[in-house]
UniProtKB/TrEMBL annotation:
<feature type="domain" description="Orn/DAP/Arg decarboxylase 2 C-terminal">
    <location>
        <begin position="95"/>
        <end position="392"/>
    </location>
</feature>
<dbReference type="GO" id="GO:0009507">
    <property type="term" value="C:chloroplast"/>
</dbReference>
<comment type="similarity">
    <text>Belongs to the Orn/Lys/Arg decarboxylase class-II family.</text>
</comment>
<dbReference type="InterPro" id="IPR009006">
    <property type="entry name" value="Ala_racemase/Decarboxylase_C"/>
</dbReference>
<keyword id="KW-0663">Pyridoxal phosphate</keyword>
<keyword id="KW-0210">Decarboxylase</keyword>
<dbReference type="GO" id="GO:0009089">
    <property type="term" value="P:lysine biosynthetic process via diaminopimelate"/>
</dbReference>
<dbReference type="GO" id="GO:0008836">
    <property type="term" value="F:diaminopimelate decarboxylase activity"/>
</dbReference>
<dbReference type="Pfam" id="PF02784">
    <property type="entry name" value="Orn_Arg_deC_N"/>
</dbReference>
<protein>
    <recommendedName>
        <fullName>Diaminopimelate decarboxylase</fullName>
    </recommendedName>
</protein>
<dbReference type="InterPro" id="IPR022657">
    <property type="entry name" value="De-COase2_CS"/>
</dbReference>
<dbReference type="InterPro" id="IPR022653">
    <property type="entry name" value="De-COase2_pyr-phos_BS"/>
</dbReference>
<dbReference type="InterPro" id="IPR000183">
    <property type="entry name" value="Orn/DAP/Arg_de-COase"/>
</dbReference>
<dbReference type="Pfam" id="PF00278">
    <property type="entry name" value="Orn_DAP_Arg_deC"/>
</dbReference>
<dbReference type="InterPro" id="IPR022643">
    <property type="entry name" value="De-COase2_C"/>
</dbReference>
<dbReference type="InterPro" id="IPR022644">
    <property type="entry name" value="De-COase2_N"/>
</dbReference>
<feature type="domain" description="Orn/DAP/Arg decarboxylase 2 N-terminal">
    <location>
        <begin position="100"/>
        <end position="347"/>
    </location>
</feature>
Amino acid sequence: MAAQSLQIPTSASKVLNHRRNFSSATPVTYLSVGVPSRRSKTLTLRAVLSEKSSPTAPPIATGIGCFTKSPDGYLYCDDVRVQEVIEAVDRSPFYLYSKAQITRNFEAYRESLQGLRSIIGYAIKANNNLKILEHLRELGSGAVLVSGNELRLAIRAGFDPTRCIFNGNGKLLEDLVLAAKEGVFVNIDSEFDLENIVAAARLTGKVVRVLLRINPDVDPQVHPYVATGNKNSKFGIQNEKLQWFLDAIRSYQPDIKLVGAHCHLGSTITKVDIFRDAAILMVDYIDQIRSQGFELEYLNIGGGLGIDYYHAGAVLPSPMDLINTVRELVHSRDLNLIIEPGRSIIANTCCFVNRVTGVKSNGTKNFIVVDGSMAELIRPSLYGAYQHIELVSPPPLMLKFLPSMLLVLCVSLRTS
Ligand SMILES: *Cc1c(COP(=O)(O)O)cnc(C)c1O
């Protein structure tokens, strides 16, 4: 990731700062702009705003999160005109992030967890930009990993390994060895996964702290591609085999130590009752497991909180709503709560800025061709996801001369 010197042709009140560590004494808007470059590196643009207010009219809040449309038709990211960023960046398309919004999203989780012993593990697969990972780590986040490379990335970003959780049904022995050395939590997903975890513990001479991934079989009421906590899921142990797993784990002590139970229901969940239903079942499992002498300390309820994709002002549950539905349960069993938010930390902080290449017609339908593609934004073509599109600048009078810029509000989710 290369820091790049970029000129923002803008008012005197905006100062570019190319230093690696800029002081945050003045309000800072951080713009990390990921541009696919020839050497597939990412350019980083940092813009620092002075305390003087911008001469452009302050945006009226008609958007979500950090993105707002002002009455003059310009789109803002916090108080920076996206158009100005476009002019400063010599490539297209690019991703634009609001550091302030990432902070706000994380703080909303932290606030909701006041009074509980907890770990917030950011699910790296939601967006693995190193600068974003470093920022979340600085805020106190842990990390949720679903591959060996994500584990390596988390280590590189400096996450505290004891606040990291290694998930997945295909964890490789070499990756588990690294996880064991680093001391991250590891989820047991299957019989063979358990064997590999034990092998990694023995190879490294470390005690691996493990959680059992259980499928509470609660319907998350989401697209089937992003439902992961039901009985037919490819993730987690077969619940009927719980006793087999407990006996096996006991026989492998002290190489591994069972410390908790995990579930992840799916993504884009918009009803917090679903989390509560799952937590009730999970606490039942924890009671059962504890009754056999295991000292479970952690309940991990996964991630999956939805966001307002439609920008229609829908009132969606907040992190506080989510935690409130499970708070008493967690207290009643004296548990540490682990949560694994991905999308709800990053989605509304990011846009994918495209340029219109041209307009064409097949006789019955007009197409606006942009320079972004499913390589950068896979969700619509993967599972027909709705993607909100906004113009960055006011449209010219005639449709024929379409505005040169289109903005696509973007979540760069790779898998689910
Ligand atoms: C994807 C994933 C998450 C995060 O899901 P979001 O919908 O992005 O919050 C959390 N935990 C696990 C195990 C995951 O695979």
